[in-house]
Amino acid sequence: MQSLTAEIQSFSRSRLRKQCTRVTSLSGRRIIETWKGSTITVVEDPVPPERMLGYVPDTSWDLQVGIVKPYLLLGSQDAAHDFGTLRKHKVSNILNVAFGVENVFPDLFIYKTVSILDHPDADVLLHLQDCCAFIQQARSEKGVVLVHCNAGVSRAPAVVIGYLMSCDGQSFDAALSLVKSARPVSSPNPGFLEQLRGFKTPPVNGSKH
């Protein structure tokens, strides 16, 4: 029997299974993000969803918006693409942290796009400074920011947790609890959670809790 040491030494990244994520934009454009080891490829998905699924997909829109702070909202791309929802919540700024999801009202809202892959190895902390600056700018101008990704489950909640830790002085546990309370489906992937749990936040001057 091969020893554990020998197995580890003979391990090859080429033996890793591929991980695929499909993203569908409002316009119907579909892309596939494929990870193999540390390499990612992004291609157009030419196959109609109904041919790939062995079940009836839920095509209803997810318009639930989590109110994290009066100026900070959390949701999915559906909420970001529904003008009635945006108007209802008095949104002025939209932070799009999805990959391949367009901004559909460029003349009506202030947008910032920070494309983050929903993969445990993706460095979400790398983008926090830009995201926090956008949110803080909107806050200083009495605006309301909606942070969204594709499903509003992993990337957007992770960014909001990072913002609360970095700019609002909250602990990881307090920020996670607040985000989950505002949007119960929030569930950042394990890699994002590990990064945020170990995130050393700078001192906050004059933060308001």
UniProtKB/TrEMBL annotation:
Residue ranges of every copy of the Tyrosine specific protein phosphatases domain listed in the record: 132-184
Stretches assigned to the Tyrosine-protein phosphatase domain: 64-205
Cellular component GO terms, alphabetical: cytoplasm
Any GO molecular function: JUN kinase phosphatase activity
Pfam families on file: DSPc
SMART domains: DSPc
Gene3D superfamilies given in the database record: Protein tyrosine phosphatase superfamily (3.90.190.10)
Name the UniProt record assigns to this protein: Dual specificity phosphatase 19a
Lineage: Eukaryota, Metazoa, Chordata, Craniata, Vertebrata
